[in-house]
Amino acid sequence: MFDPLRAKARVIMFVAAGFLGGLALASGMGWTGPSYAMPTITQVPQVTDDAVRPALQLSNALADVAEAVTPAVVRIEVTSTRRVGTIRIPEPFRPFFDLPEGQEHPEIPSMGGGSGFLVSHDGYILTNDHVVAGANEIRVYLKDGRYFIASVVGSDPTTDVAVIKIDQDGLPFLSLGRSADIRVGEWILAVGNPGFGGSPGDLDYTVTAGIISAKGRPLRLIQSELERNPEFGQALSGYAIEDFIQTDAVINRGNSGGPMVNLRGQVVGINSAILSPSGTFAGYGFAIPMDLAARVMEDLIEFGRVRRAWLGVSITQIAPEDQEYYRLPQVAGVLVQDVTDGGPAARAGLRQGDVLYSVDGTVVYQPNGLQNLIAQKRPREEVTVRIYRDASPMDITVRLGEAPLSSVEQPEARPEAPAAEAKLGISVGELTPGLAQQHGYSEAGGVIVTETSPLGPAARRGIRRGEKILEINGEPVSSPDDVRRILRGVQEGAIVSLLLGWRDETTRILNVRAAG
After folding, report:
1. What is the per-residue pLDDT for 399?
2. How far apart, in Å, are the Cα atoms of 499 and each of 174, 353, 449, 476?
3. Which of 27, 33, 83, 350 ranks highest by number of CB atoms within 10 Å?
4. According to the per-residue pLDDT averaged within each range, which of 116-120, 206-210, 222-226 is highest?
5. pLDDT grade, residue 442 (50/70/90)?
């Protein structure tokens, strides 16, 4: 029997089941689901400007400097040729190749380059010599996308500085600062335009920030760069720049030749090399001081070559013993070990044993510091050097000469010596014919150092086994007994001044503090 109420209930249950099933299906397909309130997104700073104002000012300053200097930084693309290894071609195939009999070292095209920066509105550009060395064609890319073929005005491999020029006017250029004024800890930017990938736009205008980590860094610190770039190493080894600026700003390959600028946007150095076993940046970058680079640039533009000033002395580092012996105001200056006959220093009256303390009022602290000061002068320019002689200061005027490439003041190497015992940590004996032959002397006679203690005072100052002792405290010695007699009167802690000779007839002075 048909029950309308029961039928109505079935319909309602069917409809409800369909609705719930559809709802479940829709939910599973993502058409519906729980609704969430849109979160409030804010750009309100979590730290007030006042709290970080000094850092914001520095950040803005770095950005302003980058914007100001990058238009004058260029990418340099160099096309050259290089020889490849020997190619041997089997006889059946030789007719197909235009090569002489036997073997050939063919030249193949090669592309390289680096960075540079404009220093004048009419297209003069400073860069590294090793960037443009051996170039067949030099192409310079500007920030606005234009490029020009450049010519080499002059290049100095000994300082790794080159000047090139493009034929264009109205160009942006950078102001040159004084590298002598920079301080360790000062903020700088290193700017490069490496353009990796061979086309403009690839890593163009790379700007890195850092501080001046040190000044006066020697050439040996960038030995890894020299090994990767033998031409660079051979060039620098002839002159041995010993006054690199060190920075922790990133300098990588392709940035060579770019400017290192201070927060005023002035160039204080030319990015040149890195210290890295891997070939990439490892925290140590080096730049050529702008004072030296500017001096080289002026000569290259005016004369096409560098006219190098020459003083004509051989020098070594001052030690605390020297300061006490010569009564110097501080541990500063360099000790003159030799004066070139007929050279500028000799003509002015400098002599062995003088302490060269300053040049034109600038105190010299290391041999490389004197080298850099003289390198910034011109031949025939007069300089005033302050020396200490017999513990008294005096000023001498020297007219500098012009040096050949090899005539550069270099610090003398100080080899270590094997062991022995004595009052100065040495043993002495007569220079017999047998010892003369053994150590390379042309004749016998006099007193020779036969042994040195590796931890003794003499060895610490660099006295070598085989050196002759010519004088002690200004008194000539001719026998081992003379040495012992003089040393008997020396008190513990006193400074003993030794004049030493070597088989090539060169002499040097070393001041040693006597042990007890």
Report:
1. 94
2. 51, 9, 12, 9
3. 350
4. 116-120
5. confident
Structure-token match 């960038």, residue found: 222
The CATH number of the domain covering residues in 72-165:
2.40.10.10
Domain 175-303 identical in fold to domain 426-513 = no
CA angle 454, 457, 460 (to 5 degrees): 55
**CA 265 – CA 65 distance, rounded (Å):** 6
Give residue limits of the domains in the chain. 72-165, 175-303, 309-402, 426-513
CATH of 309-402, one of 3.30.1490.190, 3.30.70.270, 2.30.42.10, 3.40.50.1370: 2.30.42.10
DSSP state of 411: B
**Tokens representing residue 28 in the block:** 């599973």
Per-position DSSP letters for 59-107, written without gaps between them: HHHHHHHHHHHGGGEEEEEEEEEEE---B---GGGGGGS---SS-B--E
Q: Using one digit for the tens of pLDDT, what is the confidence trace for 240-283?
A: 455 788 888 887 767 789 999 999 999 999 998 765 555 555 56
Max Cα-Cα span within the chain: 149
Catalytic member of 160, 243, 248, 354: 160
Is 160 in the active site? yes
**Exactly one of 129, 130, 179, 322 is catalytic; which is it?**
130
256 catalytic? Reply is: yes
What are the pLDDT digits (tens) for 458-502?
A: 888 888 889 999 999 999 999 888 888 888 888 888 899 999 998
For the entire predicted model, the pTM comes to 0.64
CATH architecture of the domain with residue range 426-513:
Roll (2.30)
CB distance 457 to 514 below 8 Å: yes
Q: Please determine, for residue 408, whether its predicted confidence score (pLDDT) is greater than 60.
A: no
- From 115, 155, 179, 256, the catalytic residue: 256
β-partners of residue 117 are: 73, 126
As a residue count, the chain comes to 516
Nearby residues of 53 by Cβ (< 8 Å), 6 or more positions away: none
What is the reported pLDDT for 416? 35
Contact 500, 468 (CB under 8 A): yes
Torsion of the alpha carbons at 20, 21, 23 and 25, rounded to the nearest 10: 160
Whether 130 is a known active-site residue: answer yes
CATH architecture of 175-303: Beta Barrel (2.40)
For 347-359, how does the pLDDT look when each residue is reduced to its tens digit (9 = 90+)?
Answer: 999 999 999 999 9
Over residues 5-49, the pLDDT tens digits come to 555 556 555 555 555 555 554 455 445 556 677 777 777 878 888
Residue with tokens 């070292």: 105
* DSSP SS3 for 201: coil
CA distance 58 to 187: 9
